[in-house]
Specification:
Layout: E1 14-18, E2 21-24, E3 27-30, E4 33-35, E5 40-42, H1 50-53, E6 61-65, H2 75-83, E7 87-91, H3 93-105, E8 110-114
Parallel strand pairs: 6-7, 6-8
Antiparallel strand pairs: 1-2, 2-3, 4-5, 4-8
Length: 117
């Protein structure tokens, strides 16, 4: 079997995750994280849609990782993203990380909202 190295032209891939941390583009973040087209950083959670809304013209979809299990997200958070023209896909955080990396490697316009595992 031949393995090909994935090259990410833009964005920062998720390199790993564990209890209460994510490693994104080689940098470790504790707690909730917002991964955007040109930045990445800690995030205050579902009460704050502004990091994603502020770059809505650069995003088609945000994958919302809800922690170790899939869970509902607050309606105001989902509504704010959808009103800005951003699609919302909810999954557990490990699945959100993998899905994000695949689409990022394809050059897609994706963002990531992660709650810790």
């Amino acid at each position: 079997m031949k393995f090909n190295e994935i090259v990410f032209d833009e964005g920062r891939p998720v390199d790993g995750y564990g209890p209460n941390f994510f490693r994104i583009g080689g940098e470790v973040f504790k707690g909730a994280v917002a991964v955007l087209p040109n930045s990445c950083g800690t995030w205050s959670g579902y009460e704050d849609a502004s990091p994603f809304v502020s770059v809505s013209t650069q995003l088609d979809v945000v994958f919302v990782g809800t922690g170790s299990v899939i869970a509902q997200i607050p309606t105001p958070f989902r509504s704010a993203l959808e009103a800005a023209g951003i699609g919302v896909e909810i999954m557990n955080s490990p699945t959100a990380c993998r899905t994000y990396n695949v689409l990022l490697s394809e050059g897609r316009r994706v963002g990531l909202a992660l709650m810790p595992v």
